[in-house]
Amino acid sequence: MNSVVQYTSHDQYAIVSIVNGKANAISHQVIEGLNKSLDIAEKEQKVVILTGQPGIFSAGFDLKVMKESPESAKELVTKGSELSLRMLRFPRPIIVACNGHAIAKGAFLLLSADYRIGVEGDYKVGLNEVQIGMTMHHAGVAIAKSRLSEVYLNRSVSNSEIFEPKAAVQAGFLDLIVSEKELLATAKSIAESFAKLHLKAHAETKLKVRKKHLLKIKKAIAKDLKSNIVINP
């Protein structure tokens, strides 16, 4: 797709890889590459496996862009929220093969997928926005409410609690934990299973199940567009 997002098509699924430096930061270029990848996967009617680099799925938004100005932060966060909304209503299953750390927008991508596989190890998963001084945006709250366990919602969003992989399953960020060497093979196996789903039935049922949350996320994005992203010193 571009230099930071790679797309590889297979018989029943497509592998989309984020490759953007040490932190695998979510930049404008990454979001553009992910959207183009989803365009192709939708046209080819492929299950999507979204993955990162060894040890890191993504540490979140590109901090250089976020710190540039309130306007630049707002633009990037809005594009990220729109990507999550698209993923949540994507007509084919999206599996995340989470290679390791998934922080901030990296964790939100987990919450935007249909099935999430993490790896064993000393890895961190969670929403650290409040910890680093960012008041959580409306869409972030709405996305978190749509997928996180009620017990873990405040711990994750308001308190910025970060979890190791097994606890991340309990919280609702992940569905399964495997060893690093089993990650991609497990994702491929699940993708092949999901490929047997009836395309139209899956797409229509997903929208029914998520209808309430999709509407709330869409309204939350509109709210964020009318306000500034607040990053406290």
From TrEMBL:
<dbReference type="InterPro" id="IPR029045">
    <property type="entry name" value="ClpP/crotonase-like_dom_sf"/>
</dbReference>
<protein>
    <submittedName>
        <fullName>Enoyl-CoA hydratase</fullName>
    </submittedName>
</protein>
<dbReference type="GO" id="GO:0003824">
    <property type="term" value="F:catalytic activity"/>
</dbReference>
<dbReference type="InterPro" id="IPR001753">
    <property type="entry name" value="Enoyl-CoA_hydra/iso"/>
</dbReference>
<dbReference type="Pfam" id="PF00378">
    <property type="entry name" value="ECH_1"/>
</dbReference>
<dbReference type="GO" id="GO:0006635">
    <property type="term" value="P:fatty acid beta-oxidation"/>
</dbReference>
